[in-house]
Design goal:
The protein is of the alpha+beta class. The protein has one domain (13-132, 176-214): Electron Transport, Fmn-binding Protein, Chain A (Pnp Oxidase, Chain A). Helices cover 31% and strands 33% of the residues. It has 7 helices and 9 strands, in the order αααββββαββαααβββ. Strands 1, 2, 3, 4, 5, 6, 7, 8 and 9 form a 9-stranded antiparallel beta sheet that branches. A hairpin with a 2-residue loop joins strand 8 (199-206) and strand 9. The longest helix is centred in the first third of the chain and has 14 residues, at 30-43. The relative contact order is 0.18. Bound molecules: flavin mononucleotide.
Length: 217
């Protein structure tokens, strides 16, 4: 089985042919290009275009990656929500640098971003939490994200516990749950092209300006 799969991986080739990206089309503000590409991904019915892989690095230098949802953009970066006591939360406590990756295979596009995180202010996390479905709000209390659990029953016990605790009242935001803002310092927009001559346009922040340049594929 492993050998067959390994052979398969070795043999498949994909030719990227659908689109191009040039310096002019890339514009001057990378988040605007991200927004344009996101809109096109939505239009093309990419399954989950708000999903992005965020990589963090622990205090002892070990990287780890996971998918989170992009829950907001500004001119300077992205927002996501999570448990501050999770593995990523601990990583970010020690090291605020992140690397983000989005791959929209249907669009033959990859976006890489790097930046520094800070916690969103309490009011913003409160407002987002309030707008979540009640089951998700209870889940934020019941799940000590990234901690060991004995079995699924234990999780369900905690869900029941917090459902009872907050019965008949609004579920408050847990103090360990909230948002992060990723202030971007670097973007790469990758568009697959034929014969592996892909387009790669980089935006690198220098003070308040973005420097734009092309790199070889
Ligand atoms: C499509 C998708 C979307 C996800 N969105 C989030 C999210 O917005 N926030 C979050 O904390 N975890 C999200 N997760 C779960 C994370 O990938 C991860 O399992 C969790 O955050 C724990 O990561 P950690 O142990 O590295 O902290 C998502 C997973 C998938 C597959």
């Amino acid at each position: 089985m492993i050998e067959e799969v390994s052979n398969y991986l070795n043999q498949i080739r994909h030719e990227f042919t659908s689109q191009a990206l040039n310096e002019e089309a890339a514009g001057d503000i990378p988040v605007e290009l991200y927004a344009k590409w996101l809109e096109e991904a939505v239009g093309a019915q990419v399954l989950d275009p708000k999903a992005m892989v965020v990589s963090t690095v622990s205090g002892n230098g070990k990287p780890s990656s996971r998918v989170v949802y992009n829950r907001g953009i500004t001119e300077t970066g992205f927002k996501f929500y999570t448990n501050y006591d999770s593995r990523k939360g601990h990583d970010l406590e020690n090291n605020p640098f992140v690397s983000v990756n989005v791959f929209w295979s249907e669009m033959e596009r990859q976006i890489r971003m790097e930046g520094t995180v800070s916690k969103l202010d309490r009011e913003e996390s409160d407002a987002y939490f309030k707008a979540r479905p009640r089951d998700s709000q209870i889940g934020a209390w019941a799940s000590a994200q990234s901690q060991k659990v004995t079995d699924r029953e234990e999780l369900e016990k905690w869900v029941k516990h917090f459902n009872e605790k907050f019965e008949g009242m609004e579920v408050p935001r847990p103090p360990h749950w909230g948002g992060y803002f990723i202030e971007a310092t670097y973007f790469e927009f990758w568009q697959g092209r034929p014969a592996r001559l892909h387009d790669r346009i980089i935006f690198e922040k220098d003070g308040n300006t973005w420097n734009k340049y092309r790199v070889a594929p």
